[in-house]
């Protein structure tokens, strides 16, 4: 067990270092931060932003149930981040195994004493850690904004929303890693991963047109449905289970893909 853990840490460190040593990773980070920052200020301070709408309601003397501006801000911004992640994450996962195939090192990796599960888990941990580092600056200015609101936003909504974002990223990266193990083209891996994620993203629209257990089952597979549940501040164990299942499925399929590659080379 100690040897397995040491091998896992070694793979994890190698993958994480490869991200921070790659100029392309910094381009991804820069684009993600630029777009997320733009939408942050557009949602919060723009002419159609939540603060402007709230001020307009006050000026017009609109009565009725007050608008929960902090909650709406977090809901809109987390929804925007999930849409950005759908484009960014396939680019993070596309080289996890495709680069190994291109460099010819996948055969060495497949025939090494390391188990396929250890390698896949180490690569996935490196990718998800890199994505979490992209979220840290966003957490800082979100915390500043919501703490200055009156009344302040619910901490539960903020924590569950970002937990949902990390789980969503973990699911996409795991499935993207499997796709990356099937090809030596990083561009093809990114395109196929985006297509797969898009199907899982909009499957709820298909489910809504169906009735009975089939429609209900498809709804449970929807990434966006389960993500929205968490961003609403609802701790739903079934939504968390769906994301964890996608993560484990991606790891399992990746391990089987590399095992098939090893069998072909033996």
From TrEMBL:
Keywords: Membrane, Transmembrane, Transmembrane helix. It holds the Pfam family ABC2_membrane_2. This is ABC transporter permease. The lineage of its organism: Bacteria, Bacillati, Cyanobacteriota, Cyanophyceae, Oculatellales. It comes from the Bacteria. One of its GO terms (molecular function) is ABC-type transporter activity. It comes from Pegethrix bostrychoides GSE-TBD4-15B. The keyword Membrane applies. GO terms for cellular component: plasma membrane. The chain crosses the membrane at residues 20-45, 73-97, 117-141, 153-175, 187-214, 234-255.
């Amino acid at each position: 067990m100690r040897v397995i853990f040491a091998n896992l840490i070694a793979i994890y460190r190698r993958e994480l270092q490869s991200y921070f040593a790659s100029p392309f990773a910094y381009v991804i980070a820069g684009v993600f931060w630029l777009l997320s920052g733009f939408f942050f200020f557009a949602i919060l301070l723009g002419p159609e932003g939540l603060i402007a709408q709230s001020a307009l309601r006050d000026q017009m003397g609109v009565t009725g149930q007050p608008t929960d501006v902090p909650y709406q801000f977090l809901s809109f911004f987390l929804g925007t981040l999930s849409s950005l992640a759908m484009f960014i994450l396939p680019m993070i996962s596309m080289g996890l195994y495709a680069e190994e195939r291109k460099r010819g090192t996948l055969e060495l990796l497949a025939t090494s004493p390391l188990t396929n599960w250890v390698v896949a888990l180490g690569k996935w941990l490196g990718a998800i850690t890199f994505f979490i580092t992209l979220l840290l600056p966003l957490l800082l200015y979100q915390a500043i904004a919501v703490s200055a609101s009156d009344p302040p936003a619910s901490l539960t909504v903020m924590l569950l929303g970002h937990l949902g974002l990390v789980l969503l990223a973990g699911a996409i990266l795991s499935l993207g890693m499997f796709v990356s193990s099937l090809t030596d083209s990083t561009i093809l891996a990114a395109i196929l991963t985006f297509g797969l994620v898009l199907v899982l993203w909009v499957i709820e629209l298909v489910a809504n047109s169906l009735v009975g257990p089939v429609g209900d089952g498809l709804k449970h597979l929807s990434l966006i449905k389960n993500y929205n549940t968490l961003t609403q501040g609802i701790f739903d164990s079934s939504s968390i289970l769906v994301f964890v299942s996608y993560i484990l499925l991606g790891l399992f399929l990746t391990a089987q893909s590399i095992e098939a590659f090893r069998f072909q080379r033996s």
